[in-house]
């Protein structure tokens, strides 16, 4: 194991602990904001700016939804995340609903319904004829069940990271652009928090090399027919198609085009800047899907392509834990393609753990007992 640049020592008993948060994406930004609001002196550092194009938090939009199968902790975190997103800036959220289309067993949604009701989330089940009448622009051929999660919607991703950073600065935090490596340390810092997304494993290969595995996801935006409202909210919700693969999308919002993404893990990348070129085969696969499920868009022009980085943990759970050999160093990551929506609650949980020792759920710890048998998708996690 490489020598550690951090001291395995108790935190200083200063009135205001001094914390450096490295990474100004969704996890790092919200953690820094919560730490500052709890009274810490905080500096937030990023090499390329909040929500930059090669980060896990970059891109135009992300989904926020509460269906998580039987995972109660995530539903609770989504509820808290909604509250904090709306307190920060309501314009970051567009309510669309989320249409869950299952080609096979829908046990994942069915197991979530009792928990959702407990937390105040409403889910409607449609028969296939009802779904066809309500959404004539969707071809439901091959779909066996349809559910609508009413409160789901879209978050503006990159813009939100900038808004969080600005709120942090207004609260008295310090932000700076700086490249950092694992040897980074400052004599006036008590606690280091690394929320570096896909870079975590590169910075700490001995600790996180098997815990954070970045993949590159290709996301396509298609032009919708001019003057048509059929592919924009409220006529079109966010949708998830559960088949052999899990394909999901976000309706055309603010002229950004109709978003289509495949949740299957993409190519493994050691550095998130690698191979950022359009894959023609993936594009043709996406077009065949459009022809099947959204026939009017079968020949829609490609408006743009984004490259999203997943930072996959072995079991799809988040990572919020200390460095195993230095108790003044924390890791926050493992978003696994589903973490952005949760980031306000993630930051709150991390800040409370760092400053007051509040327990973090065992599922989020660097525990060898965690199931590492397979990486689970963001929409189907079975712990």
Short recap of the structure:
With 383 residues, this protein is of the alpha/beta class.
Topology:
Blueprint: E1 18-22, H1 26-37, E2 41-46, E3 61-64, H2 72-88, E4 93-95, E5 98-102, H3 107-118, E6 123-126, H4 128-134, E7 145-149, E8 153-156, H5 157-170, E9 174-177, E10 191-194, H6 200-203, H7 205-208, E11 213-222, E12 238-242, E13 246-250, E14 258-262, E15 267-268, H8 280-293, E16 302-312, E17 319-323, E18 326-333, H9 343-356
Parallel strand pairs: 1-2, 1-10, 2-9, 5-12, 10-18
Antiparallel strand pairs: 3-8, 4-8, 5-7, 6-7, 11-14, 11-15, 11-16, 12-13, 13-14, 17-18
Q: How would you describe the overall organization of this protein?
A:
There is one protein chain. With 383 residues, the protein is an alpha/beta fold. The chain has one domain: D-Amino Acid Oxidase, subunit A, domain 2 (D-Amino Acid Oxidase, Chain A, domain 2), CATH 3.30.9.10. 26% of the residues lie in helices and 25% in strands. The chain is built from nine helices and 18 strands. Strands 5, 6, 7, 11, 12, 13, 14, 15 and 16 form a nine-stranded mixed sheet that branches. Helix 1 packs parallel to helix 5 and helix 2 packs across helix 9. The radius of gyration is 21 Å and the shape is globular. The protein starts with 17 loop residues before the first strand and ends in a 27-residue tail after the last helix.
